[in-house]
């Protein structure tokens, strides 16, 4: 298969854009960290199992992400008052600020990444990508 043929595959193009987005971001908060912080920002305090289920992250991978976030002061784990065997996790003020900073940086990077597209084309691209993503997300079991 030639490079020209690859340029006709949406999946190939998406992967290449992801690589470019990562190059532009150059941030130490990786996608799993941002995903967990975004979920925590919508919660009071939540069990690790619930986070794992909702963000579709393996429990052992989540522990590693939470260790990183806790080490940076972005999240806090506490024993669950109702079930002392479990931990709940909450976002800290520093974690909320880190999330806001990272999302703002993402918006700036998207401007550069999607510069050739008009505003309407960006809306269409987002709509189509969301539609494809949600179709597959709906097929997964929470």
TrEMBL record:
It comes from Lentzea atacamensis. This is DNA-binding MarR family transcriptional regulator. PROSITE patterns: HTH_MARR_2 (PS50995). Keywords: DNA-binding. InterPro entries: HTH_MarR-typ, MarR/SlyA-like, WH-like_DNA-bd_sf, WH_DNA-bd_sf. One of its GO terms (molecular function) is DNA binding. It comes from the Bacteria. Residues 1-134 form the HTH marR-type domain. It holds the Pfam family MarR_2.
